[in-house]
Each structure stands twice: as structure tokens, then as C-alpha cells.
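Structure in, sequence out. Go:
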């Protein structure tokens, strides 16, 4: 839905500078996600770590002409006789663009985020359709997607892309509402008091669903009750509110909230509730649910048996009943509910391909997000590789085929896609709209039997399809099958950890992120690429070869080498890898090598020993170090740093304070000798949290990035999950033994499962013989007998499982710290012990 720039200016109460005639269809807050520049309005949002205004010159060069900024940001521009000079800092350097005021619009507001939200409010007011607002601690996205599966055959639905439920995500979601929409479903997420008001003003739900209340984001609330009351404020003008009446906390809060809405409170205990769940029977692979609503009894099945899925399905049931879906349709569709894959998976494909699998959504908004992900991955990993899109028909949009695929073709063109493979009669009939290498098929089977499919090689492939086209078969066929043991790496959780620690920093404090040892076992490239996208200031690796591999893969961020080798100077020079210097022997050798290559002012990082006594110059050596550095011009000190010894433990606080004092003196002395700024850093992960006064200019984030707090070994956001599958289950009689040396002695008749992971994969042998366990279907399965090289055995006697079921070695269900405590070691050792033969699978939630 298009808006003139005049309408938007009036709506958000902006002062307009510029006279460019424009109509706006797309809102942008992230410069990396630009698709249609001429119809885009960019909101220059300021966060703790970034200023959107930095990207205005770049966006102008890419065709954007409409910007929302503050007066302060506009004051950085120069206006003279209708000529506008845009000169702002971008990516560390000044960028300047000259243009006429007649070619651009700047909308000046007090707060661009509030302006974005105000525009979403205006847009929402234009529609008088049912709007479902979903909030809660867990289950929001699954309920939203299941409602879409249940309701979309009969209605054109607009819904939040992925988990767009924040102060920024909600207005972007609401903006998708259009004339064809007959129902909207939006998520609302909060992390502190007062946030829900803005979301309520934008969503204005007519139907409210509260999924549950848990501990997520609890740090900003005094109690779960306070959090629940804040979430319930989303529903203040709803026609109906749906919730679990058996949850005492929620029921009490609803009673206190003074909501005027009708309630569909479902209950498994109270037959007087509007929706009474009379029976829940879990079978081997499905659950049978009986219910009574409006004096009518009915039954349905869902293909899940876990409690969370049952609760989510009951929230969906209540919404469907309120929307007057016939009971027989509910029964028919509930049994076909599919799992919600809330992530973009990156996998290694056959013939040198990289696969990005996204069967989560199938609409224009989610296609735009997925293409953005494809482009970012291919910019580096895909050097010399085609960007390929395998796309099915996009179903149930309410738009005509002509309009829909015109937009799809424009989107594909704007994202620089090299090749499209279309599947389905609608996209087949629209083939002429795509002006790139293209192939079209009527069915998925036809595609998979074609030479086009067989000849895919050296391509970054986005697989994006409606569920009806069974594109999981496409992904499965293209995936490189290797070891059945995998390490799943949640890039979204890693970013959440990054932001967790960034929130503790002063605005000007820079950050080094440690990606040494293959990013603590997670795989250095994908981690480094994600960190680069989130604009960390430095990456740090141990040796030059690690840095060189990142450069070859296309990583352009500054890279620090923590343990430079005398034989690797040429590699460091060639790939612009910045070494630490910790003694005079290394300094002299590095100067000599740089001078031989004719290099001047090569950045290095000076290591001081303040108490670790491992590597580094002593405080007493600093005057000599200064003289040696000033008597040459091959090297220039970029930073000076030291290592804390025990910043994670209060028992060492006196020693740590002493380290800070030594570092303060020595680093000041070094800085005083040079006119340029030398960055200072001593804080590691624990130091960031426990010694905020020692942040200096930069900090180094290590284990915390990967989800483990070094202070108490608690999990922040779990990043890595090591999992495998059961190969075989056999019955073994009592008094028999299992494994080498007959170490696994059975005291009862047992069911013993073999799983394909051993000490060659990184599973420590000391975990065997019952010293530890893995998780199978949510239950503990102890290791039986010795851990073998490639296989181990587990006891599943008391577990309902079968061959092919997953076994979690560590992850959300079983924190890695449980294993490290058992082994009397640290999580670092377990992370970095995972063998390279274990396939890494990356996903973004």
C-alpha cells in the first residue's frame, strides 16, 4: 500500500527538507536489507552500538532518496542554495555525497523509532479486519504459524515474519497489512516494563492469546506477576482473550487486569470453563484431545506428544472456535499440523554447494528476509559461486498471479540473484518476468528428475517453498551426507550473547571477539561472518593460518593474531593480520621482516604482563620498548593489552585490582610516547561483567559469546548442541557386559542403544562407565561401558525410544557445564575437543 511522502510527513509530525516527489511502499531500518530503493523510507535508528545515520551516504548511492532523521543528525549535513552535502561517518571513514534538494527528502523528527511506530499506528487504523495478538514467554511463533496452517485455506492472512515481535519488528510487521488481507496475526514480545503500550497501539488486537509466562527476560521485572500484567496490557481493547485457566498465575492476573473482553479460558480441570478439555491421551506418535465448547463434544488429534505442543494446539483450538471454524474442519486440519522450523539452516551441499533451507514461511516478506540472508552469506562464502533460488508457488496471498510474480521478479532482481529454479504452475506461467538464468517445472518430482537439478554445483542455494511442495525432499537430496553426529550452532543465540555483553559497555567501548580454535569448536567462518555483519571491531585468532583462512573466505574485519609464529610473518603481511608482540626477540624479527618487504606502519598489539606470567613485556621493560618502537617505522602500536588472571572469582579481586593499576600505569606511559591513539584493553568476558571501570577503550569477549558465563558456569543463551542418532537397540540380559574390557556390567536385563559418537569425535573417554549421560527423548541415558573410538553405548531401558531417535550429548536439554563439571574441567576444553569430522549445521532463528 503506497503512501505519498506528504502523507507520511504529516502523520509522523515531521519537518520536511527536500522536494523530491515520492511514494513509499517499503520501510527500512537495516541498510543491508535494501530491496526497492526508489520506494523505500529509511529510518535512521540509534542503538547503544550503532547509528543508522552513518549509512545514509551509502544508501543514497544505492538509490534511496527518503530518510527519517533527528535534527542533530540533519545538522551534520550542509545545505547551500539548494545544494545538499551529505557527509557522515560510515564504517570508520567519512563518506560524502552531493545532491540537489529536489532529489531527496529528509523528514526531521525527535525520535525516528517513535516515528516508525506512529506510522505503523496510522497504517493499522485503515483496516477493520480481525487481528490476533499473541504474547507470552514461549510458544508465540508456533501458535502464530499453526494458526496460519489452520486458517489460511479459507482466509488471506498477514502475519509477523519469523519472530518480528520487538519495538522495531512489530511496526515492520504491521506495515505488511494490505487490502487483500482478511486476518492478521502478530506477535508481541517485551523485555521490560512499559514496552507493551507501544506494541498495543500498533497491533490493536481484536483477539488476544496469552501462551504462558516463564523466566525469559525476567531480569527486568520484579516478579512473574508483574511481567504477566504487563503482557496482558496488550489486550486492553480486545473482543476476546484466550488463555490457559489451569495456570494459576495467569488466571489470577487476568482477574486483576480488569479486562472487559470476553474470555475463552480453556481448562483440563474445570468443566465450567468456556472450553473444557475433557481428555488428553498420548499415543506413540500422536495425541488425542477431546473437548466441550458451547455444549458440544468433539475430538481431534495432533501429530505431537510433548506438553508444549499440546498447550499450543489448545490455544489454536480456542482461536479457531471463536472464528467459527466448523469442528470437522478443525479435526481434519489439526492432524496435519506440521512442525515449525523457526530457523534458516545453512548446510554443506553436494558438489561444492552451500544450502540455505527455509521452509518456515512462504510469502513476500519472508522471501525478502531469506534472500537477504542468502546475499550476506554469498558475499563472502560464495566468491565465484552463483546465487541460486529454488522457489515454489507462493500460495494464499490474495494477490493476482500477475501482481505477485511481478513483485517476486523485482525482488529477485534487486537482490542480485543469478539463477532461479521455479516449481509450480503459477510461477511456471510467470517465467517471462524473470530476466536471469531460469528453469521452471510443474512439480517437485519433475525438478528432482531433471538435469538442471543433477548439475547444480558450486552454488549458494536458497531453498524456499510452500509446504505443499515437499521441498524437504529437495534439501535432503542436495545435502552432503557425512557423519550422523552433528554440532548445531544457533547463530541467533550467539548474537543475543553478543548483545548481552554489549549492553554492559560504555557507548565508545570497542569489542574484540575471540574466534580462535575454530571459534571454540563452533566453526570459525560462519561465526566470523555473523560477527562481521554485526560490526564487531576486531576478531581474534590464535595463529596466522586461522586468520588467513578467514581472509580467503572473504572476511574483511580487522583480525588480531594472539600467538604469532616467527615463520608466519609473510602470511600476516599478505593477509593484513595484526600480530601481538610480547617480547623483544619477536619485535626485532618482525621489524626486520617488515623492512625487508618495504612495509611501514604495520599495526601490532603490544602485550603487557601484569601478573599472568605467560607472555608479555613487564612494566619495567616499557621504557626500552618505547625507544625500540620509536627507532623504526615498520610497525606501529595499534593497541596495548594484558590478561586478567582471575577476574571471574571474588577471591582474586585484590590481585585483579593490582593488575589494573599496573596496566593503567604502563599503558599510559606507552600512549604518552606516541601522538596517535593506542587502544587499551584488559577485560575478558568475566572482566566485562565484574570490572566495568576497567573497560578502557576495548574489551575481549570469549566464552560468553558462546553462551557460558565464566563467573558461575551458567548458560546465557545456548549456542551449540552436539547430537547424534541411535543406530541400534538390543536387549542384553542381566549379568552380561557391554563394551571393551567388559567394563559395562549389567545388574538387570537392559535395553542398550549404540550411538555413532566416540572419543575420535570429542566425547571424552572418562564419561563412560556410568560417569555421565546423554538425553534421549527428554530422559537421561547413562553411558554404559567404555567410550569407543567411533561408537558408544547408552542404557535406554527406562526410555520410550527407537532406532533413529536423537541423542543429545550437550545442548539446551543438557548444559555443557554438566559435562565439564563431571570431568573437572572447563567448558572451553569440551567445545574445542569436538572433531572436525563432526558436521557443523548453522541456523538463524
Amino acid at each position: 500500500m503506497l503512501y505519498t511522502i506528504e502523507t507520511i510527513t504529516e502523520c509522523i509530525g515531521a519537518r520536511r527538507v527536500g522536494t523530491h516527489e515520492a511514494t513509499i511502499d517499503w520501510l527500512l531500518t537495516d541498510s543491508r536489507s535494501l530491496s526497492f530503493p526508489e520506494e523505500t523510507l529509511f529510518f535512521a535508528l540509534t542503538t547503544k552500538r550503532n547509528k543508522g545515520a552513518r549509512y545514509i551516504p551509502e544508501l543514497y548511492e544505492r538509490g534511496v532518496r527518503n530518510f527519517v532523521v533527528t535534527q542533530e543528525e540533519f545538522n551534520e549535513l550542509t545545505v547551500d542554495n539548494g545544494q545538499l552535502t551529505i557527509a557522515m561517518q560510515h564504517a570508520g571513514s567519512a563518506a560524502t555525497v552531493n545532491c540537489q534538494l529536489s532529489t531527496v527528502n529528509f523528514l526531521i523528527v525527535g525520535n525516528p523509532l517513535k516515528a516508525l511506530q506512529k506510522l505503523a499506528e496510522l497504517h493499522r487504523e485503515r483496516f477493520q479486519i480481525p487481528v490476533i495478538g499473541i504474547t507470552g514467554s514461549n510458544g508465540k511463533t508456533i501458535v502464530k504459524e499453526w494458526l496460519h496452517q489452520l486458517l489460511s485455506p479459507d482466509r488471506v492472512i498477514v502475519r509477523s515474519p519469523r519472530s518480528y515481535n520487538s519495538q522495531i519488528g512489530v511496526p515492520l510487521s504491521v506495515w505488511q497489512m494490505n487490502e487483500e488481507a482478511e486476518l492478521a496475526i502478530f506477535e508481541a514480545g517485551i523485555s521490560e516494563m512499559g514496552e507493551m503500550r507501544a506494541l498495543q497501539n500498533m497491533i490493536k488486537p481484536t483477539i488476544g492469546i496469552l501462551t504462558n509466562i516463564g523466566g525469559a527476560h525476567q531480569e527486568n521485572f520484579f516478579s512473574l506477576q508483574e511481567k504477566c500484567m504487563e503482557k496482558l496490557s496488550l489486550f486492553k481493547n480486545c473482543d476476546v482473550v484466550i488463555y490457559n485457566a489451569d495456570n494459576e498465575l495467569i488466571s489470577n492476573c487476568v482477574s486483576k487486569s480488569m479486562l472487559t473482553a470476553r474470555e475463552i479460558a480453556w481448562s483440563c480441570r474445570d468443566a465450567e470453563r468456556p472450553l473444557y478439555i475433557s481428555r488428553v491421551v498420548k499415543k506413540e506418535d500422536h495425541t488425542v484431545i477431546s473437548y466441550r465448547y458451547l455444549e458440544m463434544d468433539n475430538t481431534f488429534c495432533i501429530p505431537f506428544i510433548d506438553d508444549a505442543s499440546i498447550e499450543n494446539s489448545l490455544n489454536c483450538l480456542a482461536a479457531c472456535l471463536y472464528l467459527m471454524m466448523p469442528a470437522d474442519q478443525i479435526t481434519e486440519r489439526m492432524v496435519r499440523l506440521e512442525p515449525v522450523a523457526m530457523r534458516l539452516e545453512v548446510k554443506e551441499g553436494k558438489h561444492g554447494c552451500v544450502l540455505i533451507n527455509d521452509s518456515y514461511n512462504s510469502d513476500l516478506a519472508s522471501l525478502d528476509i531469506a534472500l537477504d540472508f542468502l546475499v550476506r552469506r554469498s558475499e563472502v562464502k560464495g566468491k565465484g559461486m552463483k546465487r541460486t533460488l529454488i522457489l515454489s508457488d507462493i500460495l494464499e496471498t490474495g494477490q493476482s498471479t500477475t501482481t505477485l510474480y511481478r513483485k517476486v521478479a523485482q525482488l529477485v532482481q534487486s537482490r542480485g540473484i543469478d539463477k532461479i529454479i521455479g516449481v509450480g504452475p503459477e510461477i511456471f506461467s510467470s517465467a517471462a518476468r524473470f530476466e536471469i538464468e531460469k528453469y521452471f517445472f510443474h512439480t517437485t518430482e519433475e525438478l528432482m528428475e531433471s538435469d538442471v537439478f543433477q548439475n547444480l554445483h558450486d552454488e549458494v542455494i536458497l531453498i524456499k517453498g510452500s509446504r505443499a511442495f515437499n521441498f524437504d525432499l529437495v534439501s535432503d537430496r542436495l545435502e552432503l551426507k557425512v557423519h550422523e553426529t552433528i554440532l548445531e550452532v544457533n547463530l541467533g543465540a550467539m548474537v543475543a550473547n553478543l548483545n548481552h555483553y554489549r549492553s554492559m559497555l560504555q557507548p565508545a567501548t570497542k569489542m574484540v571477539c575471540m574466534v580462535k580454535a575454530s571459534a571454540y569448536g563452533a566453526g570459525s567462518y560462519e561465526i566470523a561472518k555473523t560477527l562481521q555483519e554485526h560490526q564487531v571491531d576486531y576478531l581474534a585468532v590464535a595463529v596466522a593460518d586461522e586468520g588467513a583462512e578467514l581472509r580467503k573466505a572473504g572476511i574483511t574485519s580487522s583480525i588480531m593474531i594472539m600467538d604469532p609464529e616467527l615463520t608466519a610473518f609473510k602470511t600476516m603481511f599478505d593477509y593484513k593480520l595484526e600480530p601481538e608482540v610480547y617480547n623483544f626477540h619477536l619485535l626485532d624479527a618482525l621489524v626486520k621482516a617488515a623492512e625487508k618487504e618495504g612495509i611501514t606502519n604495520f599495526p601490532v598489539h603490544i602485550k603487557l604482563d601484569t601478573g599472568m606470567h605467560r607472555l608479555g613485556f613487564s612494566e619495567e621493560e616499557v621504557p626500552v620498548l618505547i625507544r625500540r618502537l620509536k627507532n623504526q617505522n615498520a610497525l606501529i602500536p595499534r593497541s596495548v593489552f594484558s590478561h586478567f588472571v582471575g577476574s571471574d572469582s571474588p577471591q582474586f579481586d585484590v590481585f585483579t585490582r593490582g593488575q589494573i593499576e599496573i596496566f593503567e600505569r604502563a599503558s599510559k606511559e606507552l600512549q604518552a610516547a606516541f601522538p596517535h591513539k593506542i587502544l587499551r584493553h584488559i577485560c575478558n568476558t568475566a572482566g566485562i561483567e565484574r570490572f566495568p571501570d576497567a573497560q578502557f577503550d576495548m574489551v575481549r569477549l570469549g566464552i560468553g559469546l558462546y553462551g557460558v558465563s565464566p563467573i558461575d558456569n551458567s548458560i546465557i543463551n545456548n549456542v551449540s548442541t552436539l547430537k547424534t542418532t541411535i543406530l541400534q537397540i538390543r536387549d542384553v540380559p542381566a549379568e552380561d557386559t557391554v563394551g571393551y574390557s567388559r567394563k559395562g556390567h549389567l545388574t538387570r536385563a537392559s535395553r542398550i542403544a549404540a550411538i555413532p559418537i566416540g572419543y575420535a569425535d570429542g566425547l571424552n573417554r572418562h564419561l563412560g562407565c556410568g560417569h555421565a549421560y546423554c538425553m534421549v527423548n527428554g530422559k537421561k541415558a547413562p553411558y554404559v561401558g567404555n567410550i569407543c573410538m567411533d561408537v558408544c553405548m547408552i542404557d535406554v531401558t527406562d526410555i520410550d525410544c527407537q532406532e533413529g531417535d536423537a541423542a543429545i550429548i550437550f545442548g539446551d536439554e543438557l548444559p555443557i557445564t554438566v559435562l565439564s563439571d563431571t570431568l573437572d574441567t572447563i567448558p572451553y576444553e569440551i567445545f574445542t575437543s569436538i572433531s572436525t569430522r563432526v558436521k557443523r549445521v548453522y541456523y538463524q532463528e
